[in-house]
Amino acid sequence: MKLLIVVSSLDLTQPFSATPAWWQLMKGLYEIGVDVIAAPYQGPAIESLWWRAERNPAKWQGDVFKTARDVMRRVRPLTPSLSPTRGEGSQDESEKRSPAQAYVVEDEGNDREAASERLIRRVAQAAITPLWERHLDRLLAKQPDIDAVIVINAPLNHLNGVAGALIRKHGKPILYYDGDVPASLPNMRGFATGFRIYQDADPSEYTAFISNSAGGANTLKALGARDVHVLYYGADPDVFSPVDASAQDIDAFFYGHGREYREAWIEAMLAEPSRRMPDARFAARGTQLGDMGRTQLLPYLSFSKLREYACRSKLNLCITRAAHAGVFASSSSRPFELASMGCCIVSNPYAGFETWFEPGKELFVVHSTEEAVERYRYLLAHDAERQAVGRAARERVLREHTFRHRARQLVGIVQGYLS
User: Fold this and answer.
1) Choices 3.40.50.2000, 3.40.50.720, 1.10.1740.110, 3.40.50.261: CATH for 250-401
2) pTM
3) What fold, for 2-234+405-415?
């Protein structure tokens, strides 16, 4: 099989948190025998041992667009916040709704900001969309043995009409993989720092959609997607492998960027426990995490350093944003990465976590500060149990959750649309 993949970015130095996952997925495709061509929507084309890179036909336009958007958002920032649909204390009411309905994003932006978003989108559609349509048209004409095109996390509404035109002309299936569900969906309004990709978009022009979230699939269908498949994140066990942890000098470690949608759990699982456990060393690596109590902020240094930090820690905290944690089986990278490294994971409540891991055997879930502190103290005092849980988590990844597994699942999805 030969796949042309339009991916949001191939540049690991840029702040697109899913880029490492797309590297691993395409590496997994290569390892099972798929010929991969990768073209980045943002930034430079980067070759690797696992794919052949095609140029970004709108690189300088995209760079200008990104700069203009960032400047506009610094002047008039979008500041959505996730909050219950009823009052903070209305637990009974929220339980009557699905997790996706129990939260809404309140857009504090005004009409001027909404107009600026529309202007940015129209400029992108006028300047960038035609370049991509011509580029992909040429690639498909030049390489008729390409079986399918997969668009991964590129802004959907910046490519309006492209999929439909290419399907009509070349007869190849074109699938869209949204790896940010549910945060990307209109009812969530996306992240303040990200694109709102569904406004003005037509999901029905794609052959099918792929979602990282089982719970978000019905919403994608309601938006017009003709067919929806679920493909979870995973981990490459060669990349995220355990290292010697004989000298674990960190008691609890958290890695993540931003407090957005997880303010309460950063306080409950990191900041407050660090205050209540003065003899324990809490550490974190990330940006814009706010008040973390006694937690030490570690330097970035390199992407590979994160593996060392995680393996140096006796406990690894998985604090998933409410947008993902509240919608059933909405996968994110971190649980699979930590499990693949054999880490002992302690997580906030995460709807559908049992889809991938068994709580109590392969990781732990806590529901309050008190429970977190109790669990931390117990695990820090019981090395053998903590290490056994880490081993069980890695074994589960090796059995079910590697990116080779995901690559085979993706190939199976594509094969369903080949005549």
Assistant:
1) 3.40.50.2000
2) 0.88
3) Rossmann fold (3.40.50)
